[in-house]
Amino acid sequence: MNDTERDYLHKDLPSLLNMLESKNNATGRRTIMHRIIIVGRLNKNFEDKKKIGEHYEIMFRNQQQQQNNQKNPNFFYEKATGIIIIYPSLFVHVIESSSETIKDILKDMRKMMDDPEGMVTDARILNMAHEVHIRMFPVYTFKLMNLSLEHDSSEPSESLETLVNDMVIKLLRMGKYLNDQSKGQLKKEIIENLHEHHPEFFPNQNHANYLVKNQELMSPNEYLSFYEKPLNIIIDSDLTWPAPSRMFPFN
User: Fold this and answer.
1) Of 28, 91, 117, 243, which has the highest C-beta tally within 10 A?
2) Which are the contacts of 244, defined by CB distance < 8 A and separation ≥ 6?
């Protein structure tokens, strides 16, 4: 088969971009959506825990208003949905949105961590899911939990992978349940009474505490460094002399 015949056979086949755009159009989205799950530690001097939930609610509301007021809206913008579960000393955060919004969240979290009086002192990324086609959470909300940490220094017997997978599965099941219950509008009572009716959805605090301290998991600063630092690769030909005469195979 020559090149002309091959081009003729493939001319009507959709590209990967065409397939992604078709999936986005089917779900009413304009761009690729991502989901990130973060576990973190709250500042000990930070007393009013619900402020961190309100902080992100206001952030996402302002983003939506700015988007609505623009004459030329950002094509890559996606509204944020998810939940932040706020314990007395820890939090677990799930965000579903575009990559730009997620980067804004991580930058905001890094800013808090750099501030001695910030609400967050440490954080780790448990999971980053790319090209998510279905939102698991109907809206963005927060849930306050008044359960104290039982054993601050205890280490679980399960492996790191098992702990992360278990926490991710619980949170996704929570999102599906909330989505099924919302029916267009999520009632506040559902969130307030969620722990009483479905405690199996909530991550174990001891496990969350262990994961925050685990250096194998990536921090927000480490994740952002992939976007903010140039990629410098030294290849063998840069370290030898004389310079190769045939730089490309088609020369």
Assistant:
1) 91
2) 237
